[in-house]
Amino acid sequence: MTSINHNEMMMKSILLKVSFILLFIITSFEVQAQAPKYALQSNPWSEYQLLSPETLVGMINNKENIKIYNIGVVQNIKGAIKLGASSEAENLEKLKVVLSKLPKNQSIVIYCGCCPMDKCPNIRPAFKMLDDQKFTKMYVLNLTTNIKVDWINKGYPVE
User: What CATH number does the domain located at 47-154 have?
Assistant: First the structure.
């Protein structure tokens, strides 16, 4: 009889462990399904449309025919037109009006720099508008961290 009790206890112990493991697995999947997604935003631009700060400084110094638009809430780069955060409908509309007066082959650079580009709420709506309006030379200033780190701290020109 002792061996039966011992076997029963072993089975109960095994069943209890399996139950805990299954409960852990199920709970883990439920938590993952309910957790907010903080995935990086997808980018509507291609790699060649990312403009390095060094390249833009060179374009500014060479007085190239470029239009630079500050579509964020950050300090203005020298020569840029400040339109405000393009995540707000009225500022996106301002950009649309400004763009309507330009030829489709105008070189255009947009930037924000409020935060890392992968989290920026302003760049993608503005870029999409440029794309929808069929501009052919549109670029995003590649401020990977923010304007302070990637532009101002390097001594690049601001207004």
Answer: 3.40.250.10
Secondary structure (H, E, C), 93-113: HHHHHHHCCCCCCCEEEEECC
Burial of 138 (0-12, 13-18, 19+ CB in 10 A): buried
The partner residues of 82 in beta bridges, in order of sequence, read: 70
Residue by residue, pLDDT tens for the chain (159 residues) are 555 676 777 777 776 676 666 665 665 554 444 444 444 567 776 788 899 999 999 999 999 999 999 999 999 999 999 999 999 999 999 999 999 999 999 999 999 999 988 888 999 999 999 999 999 999 999 999 999 999 999 999 998
Strand pairing partners for 67?
Answer: 108
| Beta-ladder partners of 141 | 51
Q: What is the pTM of this model?
A: 0.72
Contact call for residues 78 and 60 (beta carbons, < 8 A): yes
Q: Between 89-99 and 123-132, two packed helices, what is the crossing angle to 10 degrees?
A: 40
